[in-house]
Amino acid sequence: METKIYILVVEDEPDVLDSIVRDITVFEKFFPIEMADSAEEARELIDSILEKDDQIGLILCDHVLPGDNGVELLVEMQNRAETEDTQKVLITGQAGLQETVRAVNEADLKHYIAKPWQKDELTKITKELLTDYVIDHVEAPLKYMQVLDGERIAEHIRTGRGITDR
Question: What is the largest CA-CA distance in the chain?
Fold first, then answer.
């Protein structure tokens, strides 16, 4: 069975969660989207995904959550071997400079998106980061060309860093 690469969206406000998912739905055919409204629920989803030998390619995470905040969750993921390579994005309007710097330094934060965001910005960042993840983790990335950065994936394959005939 083929390994699935998930997108995890963590946001406690239902309307905002729906907006994020709606904005990235173009990726769902290849990257199932899971949603959580707290760090605790996100941890349960992460464990469930990993138990099936699937991967989390991207997490889009709010900072202010019930219980542990988003930065805590991202740092935790960075310190876990199975999720340290997950592309991490903080989407928030409330993280202070100190928390943002912590996310960059300790969680290998790939991007910070301020609320309110623009759909084009969110889809561009999602496409770029999932392309990075696929290039680094998928032996046969050809099928992802139609939804990700096809030029980068083709270059990866052309230069012999991607195996397509398996």
Answer: 47
CA 138/CA 63 separation, integer angstroms: 30
pLDDT greater than 90 at residue 163: no
Contact call for residues 69 and 99 (beta carbons, < 8 A): yes
Predicted structure pTM score? 0.91
Report the CATH superfamily, name and number, of domain 5-119: Response regulator (3.40.50.2300)
Whether the upstream peptide bond of residue 141 has omega within 30° of 0, thus cis, is no
The domain locations on the chain are 5-119
Residue 97 clears pLDDT 70, i.e. is over it: no
The count of other CB atoms within 10 Å of the CB of residue 12 is: 17
| Mean pLDDT confidence for 74-86 | 96
**Cα 44–chain centre separation:** 16
Q: Across the chain, what does the average pLDDT equal?
A: 91
Where do we find the tokens 């060309």? 145
Strand order across the beta sheet in which 55-61 lies? 33-36, 5-10, 55-61, 87-92, 109-114
